[in-house]
Amino acid sequence: MSQITILLVEDSATNRQMIGQFITRLGYRCAVAVHGLDALAYCQENRPDLILMDVVMPEMDGLQATEALRELFGESWVPIIFLTSQSELENVVLGLKAGGMTTSPSL
Fold it and tell me: Which segments of the chain are extended strands (E)?
């Protein structure tokens, strides 16, 4: 099994289960967080290789969490990819400014 760890930050239990199973079937280790505060707490103790981040979540949304994680990680680069249905250009720009990456076909 791969030593690569992917942190999935998603408030929907259904999405966590579906995406988590997919990650595991690909042979990666999957850690989960329910919202941004959980992700921040996890990353204070662990350094994932990749973060898949929902944007709209309770407690701390994905944009706030990404900004906090970028500050926590400092010079150490951990890719953060947003998982969201929000495809308006303004939302994509906000995600990029927060320090995330996009897979939006509109860019």
Answer: 5-9, 29-33, 50-54, 80-83
Question: Does the pLDDT value for residue 4 go beyond 70?
Answer: yes
Three-state DSSP at 46 gives coil
The single residue listed with the structure tokens 């941004």 is 36
**What is the rounded CA–CA span in Å between residue 73 and residue 43?**
9
The H or E element spanning position 68 is: helix 62-73
When pLDDT is averaged across residues 48-69 and rounded to a whole number, the result is 92
Distance CA 7, CA 41 (A): 12
> Per residue in 73-106, is it b (16+ CB within 10 Å) or e — as a string?
eeeeebebebebeeeeeebbebbeebbbebebee
Output the CATH code of domain 5-98: 3.40.50.2300
Rg (CA), the chain: 13
Domain ranges of the chain: 5-98
